[in-house]
Design goal:
By secondary structure, the protein is α+β, with helices and mostly antiparallel strands. It contains four helices and two strands; from the N terminus they run H-H-E-E-H-H.
């Protein structure tokens, strides 16, 4: 059961399994970025909410990407900057087309 649907409006499914083909790429570990002190509480609250709703979990990994805050509709949205990872992943267009056709 996914508690996110009730608490946050975020959904989850077991109908589709997603994998990322990184080929032979070694793990990418971005250096941490400093955030303005005024945003640290917002970042902590949003991460705590994601942990409490079982959407993310604390982990130690060779892979690391930074979080960024994006202003939307007068509030801040927590996003992960995966641009460095995306540069080294192999795109599978076919799986996107199949998922899109299945959803329609």
């Amino acid at each position: 059961m996914c508690s996110l649907v009730v608490h946050t409006g975020m959904g989850c499914t077991s109908l589709v399994e997603h994998t990322i083909d990184k080929g032979s790429q070694r793990p990418i570990r971005q250096g941490l970025r400093r955030h303005p002190t005024a945003y640290l509480e917002t970042i902590d609250k949003q991460i705590d909410k994601l942990i409490q709703n079982d959407f993310v979990e604390p982990a130690a990994s060779a892979w690391a990407s930074n979080v960024v805050l994006v202003r939307k509709d007068g509030s801040h949205r927590l996003c992960v900057d995966y641009r460095a990872v995306n540069e080294h992943t192999r795109t599978r267009i076919r799986s996107h087309i199949l998922i899109h056709a299945w959803v329609l």
